[in-house]
Every structure is written in C-alpha cells, then in structure tokens.
Design a protein that fits this description.
This protein has one domain. 37% of the residues lie in helices and 33% in strands. It contains three helices and seven strands. The model has no long low-confidence stretch (mean pLDDT 88).
Length: 146
C-alpha cells in the first residue's frame, strides 16, 4: 500500500508543478513593459524590473505564443514560441522560451534541442537574419542564452 501512496504522491506533485507552470506561462503572455506603461501581473513585473536585460523582451514590439511550423530533418514539425522579437532593421530575431524548473540541469539537453529547433525553423524563413535563443528561468528570472 505504501508503494501506491508514493506513486500517487509523485503523480500529484507532477500535476501541481505542471499547473503552476501553465499558470505562470499564461501570466507571462500578458506582460508588457514600456516607458509609459506596465501591463500584467505586478509581482512578475517587479521581478523583471530587477533584471534590466529583460526589458526589451517585454516591449510592445514582441509577440507571445507564436506558432511556427516547417520541416526539420525531413519531418514536419509544429511548435509554439513563448515570446518572439523580430527586429527587421537589424535583421535579428530573439526567441525566448520560459521554463519553470528549479533544477536547471534536469532537462537541459531537451530544452537546448527545443530552442535549436526554433532557431532552425526561423533560419529557414529568414536566412539572412541572426537568430538568438534564450531560456528564461521563471523561478529566478535568469536569462540563459542558448
């Protein structure tokens, strides 16, 4: 019986973590920070403001939940990017993916592959642009370049 309780406890823990992650992602979609206004969850904005390097990723020229699809290694893939900034003047693209993990190394290879897939899909659409990919760790708002 104890084994079943452990399995159920682990299941509940994962569901709780998943729900927290989904809720945080939804809140992140609505964040906007400009010189004139701040929109979204005040606690998240407060955290972002502790990291000035993040400001440009939450300006009014960024997009959230951006769908992208194409072929990678002969297979059709469809993805959704958490936050995207395209600067057509500088021919530069920033791709930001949010992660809620507190243990950054647990799935890091999977996350690197995910960001690299995003970059490759955009490279196919904008071959003349430079493309940067980032993970924004939401538990500490640390920005990691991939």
């Amino acid at each position: 019986m104890n084994n079943l309780q452990n399995i159920y406890a682990e299941y509940e823990k994962k569901n709780f973590a998943k729900k927290l992650g989904v809720d945080k992602h939804i809140k992140m979609q609505n964040i906007l920070i400009t010189d004139n206004k701040e929109v979204g969850d005040p606690e998240i904005i407060k955290e972002i403001k502790k990291h000035p390097e993040l400001y440009s990723f939450f300006s009014d020229d960024t997009k959230t939940e951006v769908p992208i699809a194409g072929f990678l290694n002969g297979k059709f893939v469809s993805r959704r990017i958490d936050r995207l900034k395209i600067d057509h003047k500088k021919k530069h693209i920033d791709i930001i993916d949010y992660k809620t993990d507190t243990e950054k190394n647990e799935y890091i290879d999977l996350y690197f592959n995910q960001i690299n897939e995003y970059k490759e899909l955009f490279r196919n659409l904008y071959p003349e642009y430079t493309i940067s990919g980032y993970i924004l760790w939401l538990h500490d708002f640390n920005l990691q370049k991939i």
